Amino acid sequence: RDVILNLWKKCSGYMVIIEEGTRRGSELINEARDLILNLNSVELKGEVFAPCSHNLTCPRLSNNGDRTPCNFEVGFVPLHLGNEKNDRQTARYSYVVFKKGNISDPTRKWPRLVRPTLLRSKHIICRMCTEDAKLQEVIFTHSKHGRHAYRCAKASDWGDRLPIKLGDQLPTIRKTLKTNGEKYENQ
């Protein structure tokens, strides 16, 4: 707590915190997130810049049925000293980026993909965290959403933000996880 507050007081614009992409790492990130968001001092007030498009409670941690941590994946080629193979590896991480003051970016409301994009025959499945702190799974098709939305979803990957506004008509929402873990169908 004291370390996070000390670092936050010293930064002038943005602060990035990265942890291992486990459930505990995600919980630690959210503890720091809650600490910064609940500060009462005007000069220390900040908002979440990334990965969330909101300042609400993380839907991954508030949902007791979903034990999946909020994490992302990065690929890398490890440094080998000697004649070892240069096999590509992946690592998962959890992170948060804070910004001092208010964020006035209109693209902030775009949902972020929180799992890999699933490419299927004639449709794309995207799992996103939305601006109202809900996890939503959206199925994009060329016929329902048009060529541009379909191609955008197809080219997107885990961690990207989709330049769409989720509404009742577009795109079609197959299911949503509420914060209490209940599932419901949205037709």
Automatic annotation (TrEMBL):
Instruction: Identify the stretch annotated as signal peptide in this record.
Output: none
- Enumerate the UniProt keywords alphabetically: Iron, Iron-sulfur, Metal-binding, Mitochondrion, Transit peptide
Q: Which GO terms describe its cellular component?
A: mitochondrial small ribosomal subunit
Q: Which InterPro entries match?
A: Mt_RNA_Methyltransferase (IPR052571), Ribosomal_Rsm22-like (IPR015324)
One Pfam family in the UniProt entry = Rsm22
Q: What are the recorded Gene Ontology BP terms? A: translation
- Taxonomic superkingdom: Eukaryota
Care to name a GO molecular-function term for this sequence? methyltransferase activity
Q: Where in the cell is it found?
A: Mitochondrion
Q: What is the purpose of this protein?
A: Mitochondrial ribosome (mitoribosome) assembly factor. Binds at the interface of the head and body domains of the mitochondrial small ribosomal subunit (mt-SSU), occluding the mRNA channel and preventing compaction of the head domain towards the body. Probable inactive methyltransferase: retains the characteristic folding and ability to bind S-adenosyl-L-methionine, but it probably lost its methyltransferase activity.
Q: How is this protein named in the record?
A: METTL17_2 protein
